Predict the 3D structure of the following.
Amino acid sequence: MKNTEKEIKMEKEIKLKNEAEVREIGIKLGQKLLPGSILALEGELGTGKTSLTRYIGLGLGITRNIKSPTFTILNEYHGGRLPLYHFDVYRIDDPKEMEELGYEEYFFGDGITVLEWADKIKVLLPDDAMFIRMEYGKGEEERVYRVNFDIDSI
Ligand SMILES: Nc1ncnc2c1ncn2[C@@H]1O[C@H](COP(=O)(O)OP(=O)(O)O)[C@@H](O)[C@H]1O
Ligand SMILES: [Mg+2]
């Protein structure tokens, strides 16, 4: 079944009180994620999709400055524990454009794929993609993450 036809079960919810907590979780993800992991980030502007990706990069030991690939769609970073493939698919209107980019080489390769605005290309994501749906919380730095995997045991 395609992801567009089914509702992904976002059964877990966690609250991040501030950016320091997001940093901590991003570093852990960067240290522990297995090769071939796909992390699908959803959430409006400013909820911290790029920030979390930076912290994952830190956990992977990537020293280059991670910038949002808004215009290039994809930036890749090597030299860390695993390669990081950082997509921002905000400007993708048709999943076919992803095919032109050769997305499968990345999604099903040996690196970590992180996607900003992943909801735009949900149809291409495999069943085992890890979703994080981000929302603003009450305080300025508070965020609420809804996830379809056991984020606490990472
Ligand atoms: N808890 C938090 N998590 C992530 N970013 C936060 C948090 N609190 C404040 N921020 C700030 O919010 C902004 C998030 O921007 P960014 O990561 O570019 O968001 P997005 O990529 O989702 O548009 C950054 O300036 C960051 O410092
Ligand atoms: Mg961003």
The chain has one domain: 13-148. Residues 13-148 form a domain with the Rossmann fold fold (CATH 3.40.50.300). The mean pLDDT is 94. The first strand starts at residue 12 and ends at 16.
